């Protein structure tokens, strides 16, 4: 039976801006994300630019990735950046203890990462080592990256071939300090983070946006502890923020941390549990935002969900420490659920990073030697790009919202979001039900709407995925299920599908 939703959207009441940085990405020295994924080295047969894979760069440029977080994750807290500069063969080696216990040769370091960001046309988001690094390392790294002219670190950078400083805005202070980043309590981490953030200086015109590592899931007490310490008062002067944002992490899985569930073989119950848990992100964002509101009602401090996505058992036969997983239509719908929640909280949520870009967790692309495939999640990012920097438009349901009871919780089976930009309105809808079609009847108020075009991502099976042998098993197609009749937009969606339509609403 068709699941139907009626709703109203006021096209002339734009909400907060949806920062493009909600569509950020994450690349850690983990498994085949950096090595083999982004970096193949200058002697590789894989087409590359200065050692960086051309196919991966081209694919990611097409989805306009706004920022890329690096070098971790847990790896960031054992990374000493000076090991990753200078002639590659002379760089010290280390063991990547978190991820596979493999040797890291440090061939991909600061210069390679900044070159990658330039090729991608994306902003770097660098995570400093608070867990095992020193305040001096943090301070020197920022100086190395951003200081012009004559200074010890600027001279060192020039010696290594880059006289000009780079622009770096996003700067992370630690990662998961409650776990791999030092097993600290919030009360221990907060002063440490203040110290690192203080010495992460603004050099010249460069302005850092310092993101203090935050909570896991619903640890609102962590956020509260950081919020209490976010500013330093200067006597009678206006308080200034030491960090500009606080992060949190949330991963979606159908099982438990010890058995997360298979990426491609899952029951309907596991599917619905995944949907329920993905939708939980909305509650988590709201929870952290509510804590922040109590301390910062004018919303100066941003919330950053700088790790999110699905986390499944690794593909059979792969290194358990490499976190390599396939990516199905289910993952695509998880991404759609997250974007709708992000847009609804765009007033506080300023940055988000899916984990991770290539070959690891909920990846955009999977590589195998010379081959590369785009995942269903990639397509949702690409189809959602029109929302970047748009103004959020609230969609108000009228009457009953179709839901399903999952693990005792009522879960909406249709996910909707809309935004306006440059005289156009973009509406994205996901039918989360893999067994029933859905329809959306949307009343468009406040502005005339014309000319609707759209695309759809759909597969016969919610476990469908792309492989080198079948790279377009899940790929967007033109959509003919939209009818615009005056103020009424009707959309028909097949089971387990994601649709984005654009209307002229100037
Ligand atoms: O993304 C994989 C890992 O998940 C990150 O290194 C860590 O921060 C988180 O636990």
UniProtKB/TrEMBL annotation:
Q: What class of enzyme is it?
A: hydrolase
Q: Which InterPro entries match?
A: Alpha-L-AF_C (IPR010720), ASD1_cat (IPR055235), GH (IPR017853), Glyco_hydro_b (IPR013780)
Recorded catalytic reaction(s): these are: Hydrolysis of terminal non-reducing alpha-L-arabinofuranoside residues in alpha-L-arabinosides
Write the protein's name.
non-reducing end alpha-L-arabinofuranosidase
**Residues in Alpha-L-arabinofuranosidase C-terminal domain copies:** 306-497
* Keywords of this entry: Carbohydrate metabolism, Glycosidase, Hydrolase
Q: Which family is this sequence assigned to?
A: Belongs to the glycosyl hydrolase 51 family.
The Enzyme Commission number assigned here is 3.2.1.55
Q: How does it assemble?
A: Homohexamer; trimer of dimers.
Identify the Gene3D superfamilies for this entry: Glycosidases (3.20.20.80), Golgi alpha-mannosidase II (2.60.40.1180)
Q: Does the keyword GTP-binding apply?
A: no
Organism equals Georgenia deserti
- Which Pfam families does this entry report, sorted A to Z? Alpha-L-AF_C (PF06964), ASD1_dom (PF22848)
Question: What domain of life?
Answer: Bacteria
């Amino acid at each position: 039976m068709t699941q139907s939703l009626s709703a109203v959207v006021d096209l002339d009441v734009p909400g907060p801006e949806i920062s493009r940085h909600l569509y950020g990405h994450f690349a850690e020295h983990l498994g085949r994300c950096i090595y083999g994924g982004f970096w193949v080295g200058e002697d590789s047969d894989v087409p590359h630019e200065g050692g960086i894979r051309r196919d991966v760069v081209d694919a990611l440029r097409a989805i306009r990735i706004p920022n890329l977080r690096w070098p971790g994750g847990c790896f960031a807290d054992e990374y000493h950046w000076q090991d990753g500069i200078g002639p590659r063969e002379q760089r010290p080696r280390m063991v990547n203890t978190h991820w596979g216990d493999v040797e890291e040769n440090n061939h991909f370091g600061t210069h390679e990462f900044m070159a990658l960001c330039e090729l991608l046309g994306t902003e770097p988001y660098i995570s400093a080592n608070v867990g095992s690094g020193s305040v001096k390392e943090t301070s020197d790294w920022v100086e190395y990256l951003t200081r012009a002219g004559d200074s010890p670190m600027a001279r060192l950078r020039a010696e290594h071939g880059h006289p000009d400083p780079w622009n770096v805005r996003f700067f992370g202070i630690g990662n998961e300090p409650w776990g791999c980043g030092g097993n600290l309590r919030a009360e221990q981490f907060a002063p440490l983070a203040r110290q690192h953030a203080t010495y992460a200086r603004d050099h010249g015109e460069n302005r850092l946006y310092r993101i203090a590592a935050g909570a896991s899931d619903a640890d609102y007490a962590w956020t509260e502890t950081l919020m209490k310490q976010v500013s330093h008062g200067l006597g009678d002067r206006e308080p200034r923020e030491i960090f500009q944002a606080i992060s949190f992490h949330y991963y979606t899985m159908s099982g438990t941390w010890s058995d997360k569930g298979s990426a491609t073989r899952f029951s309907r119950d596991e599917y619905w549990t995944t949907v329920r848990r993905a939708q939980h992100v909305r509650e988590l964002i709201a929870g952290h935002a509510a804590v922040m509101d109590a301390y910062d009602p004018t919303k100066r401090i941003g919330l950053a969900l700088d790790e999110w996505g699905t986390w499944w058992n690794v593909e059979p036969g792969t290194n358990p420490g490499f976190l390599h997983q396939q990516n199905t239509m289910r993952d695509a719908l998880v991404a759609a659920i997250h974007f709708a929640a992000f847009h609804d909280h765009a007033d506080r949520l300023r940055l988000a990073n899916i984990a991770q870009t290539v070959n690891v967790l909920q990846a955009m692309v999977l590589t195998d030697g010379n081959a590369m495939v785009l995942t269903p999640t990639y397509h949702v990012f690409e189809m959602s790009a029109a929302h970047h920097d748009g103004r959020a438009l609230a969609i108000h349901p009228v009457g009953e919202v179709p839901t399903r009871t999952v693990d005792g919780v009522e879960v909406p089976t249709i996910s909707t979001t809309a935004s306006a930009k440059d005289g156009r309105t973009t509406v994205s809808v996901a039918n989360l039900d893999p067994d029933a079609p859905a329809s959306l009847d949307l009343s468009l108020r406040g502005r005339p709407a014309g000319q609707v075009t759209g695309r759809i991502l759909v597969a016969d099976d919610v476990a469908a995925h792309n492989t080198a042998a079948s790279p377009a098993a899940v790929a967007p197609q033109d959509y003919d299920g939209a009818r615009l009749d005056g103020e009424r937009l009707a959309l028909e969606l097949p089971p387990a599908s994601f649709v984005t339509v654009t209307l002229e609403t100037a």
